[in-house]
Design goal:
Blueprint: E1 5-7, E2 23-25, E3 39-46, H1 53-68, E4 74-80, H2 90-103, E5 107-109, H3 119-127, E6 132-134, E7 138-140, E8 153-158, E9 161-168, H4 173-176, H5 181-185, E10 186-188, H6 191-207, E11 213-217, H7 221-229, E12 236-238, E13 255-257, E14 263-267, E15 275-283, E16 289-298, H8 306-316, E17 321-327, H9 341-354, E18 358-362, E19 373-376, H10 377-383, E20 390-396, H11 397-408, E21 421-424, E22 426-431, E23 436-442, E24 448-451, E25 461-467, H12 468-471, E26 487-490, H13 495-505, E27 510-511, E28 518-521
Parallel strand pairs: 3-4, 4-5, 5-6, 9-11, 11-12, 12-14, 17-27, 18-25, 22-28
Antiparallel strand pairs: 1-2, 3-15, 7-10, 8-9, 13-14, 15-16, 17-19, 18-21, 20-25, 20-26, 22-23, 23-24
């Protein structure tokens, strides 16, 4: 087992703009021979970008600087661990797909949001991908358009060195993807089966003489830790799905040891393309890591270049300015479990534009915020990038209360998923343990009506604006059903269209405030 851990910094990498506070796994260094010259490797990694185009443009700048940085005798790899795509809008999906081509990744793991795209459309994207989509634990129906388009692993060769790269899709895929043809065509193994398949593939690659193995895992940090400690032959796990921001290397935190005592490093770069990771490694001639340095880069430190903007706008078109923000408040630090003033604009747009009693939106829909200055259609797409269809349905008090309580469970869950519900036309108070304390409905005359949360009614029905993900039981706020009987009208557009229309009608310039319509209070115990 390798136990010595020291610190080293490489201040030359990326012109010293990287954060070099990381720890090193280090063996006592023998005299170097031709056989013992270390194999230097630098990996740029991204995960969970969630369709954020402005951050894609910034990451493009990071990747170009990575390409142009002189690292003598160092093999460079660029890899992604899934959820680069988000939502069903095919134009936005094309941007995400081209982004991976533009920055030059070799492989991307199959994440749950890649399956927001129906198989026919996803296959069209893969036909234009210069990278390989990987998921060793995915079984694709032979009749699916995606048949043959998801690999188990690839072998990348740099400077005469070979790297085995294996992908993992999330075992909770069925819970994370709304009902569509994706889940009919593509089945994902449970995690125990996944681990066995990974070990078998590692063994196969080892038998081919490949002793440097990287996992692109969209399985979550808990599963990654288990994988690291219960297998042999894995060197690095580039994780995703749980949106952890892992800086540095620390034994017991993200440095673990395999069954045979070799070091395994796990890392993740957070969410929404807010960060990029650079993992620097040295391997000995047996493929064992002897040094490692993990750097996190904030993408907002990099500019969106004219080249990257033009490339994106060649696909989506020029944005339309729809309003101006004069003042705003800080966006929530924990967007899944806090009132969200920016999200409230979106849910207000749903209610007002469709004329319903209330509107409901899960907090996970909101992936950005409106800053001071102009709001254009691209920014709206950045704030609410999912492209789900909008519906009007009728829900009872009990159905609404039960859905709010499902959101409350997020406070005690890892990653705070699926998130609380944002409402328009209703207000509620909840403890920081997720206990619903009160709920009121505000009618169209501005009068508030208390709802009995302990005995909510089933007879009275509210008209509710919602998206089809919520309506069909996505994230289990409502019972799973691909054809709910409470739907009374369907629309062929998403909430971002409603948001643009709504903002245009508001007095300009706008002031964004925190109205505390969702109030979180400390629990009594």
């Amino acid at each position: 087992m390798i136990n010595n851990i020291n610190i080293y910094n490489n201040t030359n990498l990326l012109k010293a703009r990287l954060k070099n506070q990381q720890k090193t796994v280090k063996n006592p260094e023998p005299k170097q021979t031709l056989e013992s010259v270390p194999v230097k490797t630098s990996i740029l990694y991204v995960n969970d970008i969630h369709g954020k185009m402005t951050n894609m443009e910034r990451i493009y700048s990071v990747a170009k600087q990575f390409d142009n940085t002189n690292l003598p005798n160092t093999s460079k790899l660029k890899l992604a661990s899934g959820d680069v795509i988000l939502g069903a809008n095919f134009i936005s999906n094309q941007v995400a797909n081209n982004f991976l081509n533009w920055i030059g990744v070799s492989a991307n793991a199959l994440g749950n949001h890649e399956l927001d795209v129906i198989p026919k459309r996803l296959a069209q994207l893969m036909d234009k991908a210069n990278y390989k989509l990987l998921a060793i634990n995915a079984t694709v129906a032979p009749s699916s358009p995606m048949a043959g388009k998801i690999g188990k692993s690839i072998i990348e060769e740099r400077n005469g060195q070979k790297y085995g790269i294996i992908g993992i899709a999330p075992s909770d895929m069925a819970e994370r993807v709304k009902l569509n043809d994706s889940m009919r065509d593509i089945k994902i193994d449970d995690f125990e089966t996944t681990m066995k398949k990974v070990q078998d593939e590692v063994n196969r690659l080892k038998n081919e003489g490949i002793n440097k193995i990287i996992i692109l895992s969209h399985s979550g940090f808990k599963h990654d830790k288990k994988l690291a400690q219960n297998t042999d032959g894995i060197d690095v796990i580039l994780g995703a799905h749980t949106h952890d921001l892992v800086s540095g290397i620390e034994k017991g935190k993200n440095l673990f040891y395999s069954k045979s005592g070799e070091p395994v490093i796990i890392t993740q770069a957070g969410k929404d393309g807010e960060n990029v990771g650079i993992l620097n490694l040295e391997f000995d001639n047996n493929g064992v890591i002897t040094k490692a340095q993990n750097n996190i880069i904030k993408t907002r430190e990099y500019n969106r270049t004219l080249t990257s903007r033009a490339a994106v706008e060649s696909i989506i078109g020029k944005p339309e300015v729809i309003g101006t923000v004069a003042s705003t408040v800080e966006p929530p630090k924990e967007r899944l479990i806090e009132n969200n003033p920016d999200g409230n604009i979106v849910v207000d747009a749903m209610r007002n534009e469709l004329g319903t009693d209330i509107a409901i939106l899960n907090a996970g829909n909101i992936r950005g915020h409106f800053g001071v200055g102009n709001i254009d259609s691209r920014l709206v797409n950045d704030v609410t990038p999912f492209e789900d269809k909008i519906l009007i349905g009728k829900l009872s008090e009990k159905e609404i209360v039960d859905a709010i309580k499902v959101g409350g469970k997020s406070f005690t869950r890892t990653g705070h998923k699926p998130g609380i519900l944002l409402l328009s036309g209703m207000k509620y108070t909840m403890t920081d343990k997720g206990e619903l304390k009160s709920l009121t409905y505000t009618d169209k005359n501005g009068v508030e009506h208390q709802i009995d949360i302990n005995n909510p009614g089933t007879e009275r029905k509210f008209t509710v604006a919602m998206d089809d993900f919520f309506a069909m039981g996505g994230d289990n706020y409502l019972p799973t059903n691909d054809n709910p009987d409470f739907i009374i009208k369907k629309f062929d557009f998403d909430k971002n269209k409603l948001t643009c229309n709504y903002i245009k009608k508001l007095p300009q310039p706008m002031n964004i405030i925190n109205d505390e319509r969702v109030k979180i209070i400390p629990s009594e115990s």
